[in-house]
Structures are given as C-alpha cells and as structure tokens.
Specification:
Helices cover 56% and strands 12% of the residues. It has 340 residues and is an alpha/beta fold. A five-stranded mixed beta sheet has the order 4-5-6-8-10, with helices on both faces.
C-alpha cells in the first residue's frame, strides 16, 4: 500500500485520483455556495481546519495545478454576474472560487491538516481496492436468453472493470498514453456495438424500444425529467451530478463533471406538443453557463425542438442542443458525443 505522503510529492499520482471527489463528503461534509459547485477560500480553510493564510499560501505555490482543476478568481463584470446568479453578498473587488476537484487537489497538497491527511488515506485505500478487487461476475437469471446473458456480462465487464482500468493506466502513463487512449476508445466502441446489438434483437422480436422511450419521457413531470437526465449523465460516466430542483435555478438545472474532468451545466425543458425552445431561453442559459465558473460543456436538453433563432444562438455560444429525437436516442442507450 502506498503511503499517503506519496500524494504530496507526485503530481502524476494526484492526477490519477482527482475524479474521486466523493471522498471529500465521506471524510467530512463539504458545504457549497448556493450555485452547488464552488466554495470560497474561507470555506476551504474551514473544511480542512486550517487558517485562510495557509490556503492562500498553497495557492501561491501551486496555482497552475489548482487552476487546471477548477480554481479561479472572479473580478469585474464576471464577479457581478456570479453574485447575481448565486445570491452571494460580498463587497470585495475579487472572489476566489474552488471547485470540488480543486478542493480535493488542496487535500493532496496540504501537509499540516489532519482532515487533508484523512482524505489522502481514504483516496489511496479506494485506489488500492479498485486495482485489486476481483471482477464481478453475477450469475444470470433463467428468464434471460443465452445471447442476452453473454451481452450483458461482457458489457458489465467492459464498462465496470476494463474501462476503469484503462483510465487508471492512462492517468499514470507517459509515452504510451496515446496508445492507451486509442485502446480504451476501441473497447468503448465494442461496448456500444453490443448494446446496439441487444436493442436490435429486441426490435426484431417485436418490441419497439423507441416508442417505449418516447411514452416514458412524455409521462414525466419536470422534476422526474431532470432526474432522468441526471441518470443519463451518470450512465455516460459523469460524476458530481447535482440536480438543483428549484424554479429559481437561473437557467441551470443540473451540474456535473465528465469522466475526463470537464465541468457540465445542463438546462432541461419538458414541453409537449409543437412547442419549441425560444431564443430568450437559450440566451438565458448561455449567459448562466458562462457566468457560473466558465462551464466546459453546456447542454440544453429538451423534449421538443429548438427554434431556428435559439439554435443559432446555441451555435454561436457553444451550447450543445439535445432535441426530442436526440434525447430519445440518448435515453435508449446511445452515448452522448459531447460527454465522450
């Protein structure tokens, strides 16, 4: 077992476990700002039970690494927009924000904190278990056909064991990183083809999965729809998925982080009939996604289509639109390209 001090010395090792932000809450509850994604310097200091000065000193010594993991300082109009969106009351000319990933980064750099040490120990324990535990191989049930059992067991092994193993290797790889990424992509393609094969067999046997998906989505309340989208994000490998479930969300319904560390903001619109997303809604969401932490991926998911004006704004602002047909394909098992 690696000693926790190894994380203090090795950036490669730190990078390999940065996706495990759930460890923070397992060691101690981390309070977040109203946006559900960030904390201030004072909040980080309180979590690790150290002085604010210690966190600021750490930022000076490791600023580039922390910024690559979500630390940033808001000033000017950007700060004003964030205050308006999050409801924060502050008269300071600047505001330093840490994402959960950046807080975990602090835990792996902060020497004089018992809480930080506990986080490092927990991280390494989880990493050890992930690398040494046997592959799960559940016994199939009698009601499933032989082909289905094979497909499900293979996709389970690929998705739950082989791909995570490649992720760990890629995180610590040097000159072979590119080859490992290519191999992982090939494995994910095999997994997707098996899922497609399974759906095709069901269709030929008389089932109509697309119609079932459409009917299921149509019956959802707006709350259920947001949770449905959140589950799709988790299925596609996202972590830190938070459903905000508030009518005062200022344009962002769900926040998350992709498997490779990109931040995600999602707006959900559950509308029936011939209703289409108007340009005003798209402008509001695009502005919110830019103001709240410069989100890497902005997804606008709707059970309808987008007006031509709304689509034009999305294209200009970098928002990824998911219309009714794309949503049904995503719900039926097709992985969303923006999350790969």
């Amino acid at each position: 077992m690696i000693n926790d001090s190894a994380l203090l010395e090795s950036k490669t090792l730190r990078d390999s476990v940065l996706d495990r932000t759930d460890v923070l809450d397992r060691v101690k509850a981390l309070s977040l700002l109203p946006d559900g994604m960030h904390v201030t310097t004072a909040m980080v200091a309180a979590y690790f039970q150290v002085r604010v000065k210690a966190i600021r000193s750490l930022v000076i010594d490791h600023r580039a690494e922390l910024e690559s993991n979500g630390y940033h300082v808001l000033t000017g109009t950007e700060l004003s927009a964030f205050k308006a969106l999050s409801g924060i009351q502050s008269r300071t000319p600047s505001l330093a924000l840490f994402s959960r990933r950046a807080v975990l980064n602090v835990a792996m750099l902060l020497r004089d904190s018992e809480v930080a040490r506990q986080v490092r120990v927990y991280l390494l324990d989880m990493e050890y278990l992930a690398r040494t535990q046997p592959v799960e191989n559940p016994a199939p049930t009698d009601v499933v056909s032989l082909d289905d059992r094979i497909d499900q067991r293979i996709t389970h092994v690929l998705g739950k064991t082989v791909v995570p193993m490649f992720n760990a290797l890629i995180a610590t790889a040097g000159e072979h990183r590119r080859e490992l990424i290519a191999l992982r992509d090939d494995i994910e393609n095999v997994e997707r083809k098996l899922c497609w094969h399974h759906r095709r067999i069901r269709s030929l046997e008389g089932e109509v999965p697309r119609d079932q998906v459409r009917a299921s989505i149509k019956a959802m309340t707006w709350q259920a729809f947001e949770h449905h989208v959140a589950e799709l994000l988790r299925r596609d490998g996202c972590t830190d998925v938070v459903v905000r479930q508030a009518r005062t969300d200022r344009g962002i319904d769900i926040t998350a982080r992709t498997a490779d560390g990109r931040t995600v903001a999602v707006q959900c619109k559950n509308r029936a009939g011939r209703w289409s997303v108007p340009s005003a809604d798209m402008q509001k969401f695009a502005g919110a996604a830019r103001a709240v932490g410069h989100m890497d991926v902005a997804l606008f998911v709707a059970t309808c289509n987008f007006s031509s004006e709304a689509q034009a704004i999305a294209d200009l602002s970098g928002v990824v639109t998911v219309n009714r047909d794309e949503l049904e394909e995503w719900s039926a098992g097709v992985r969303l390209k923006a999350l790969r």
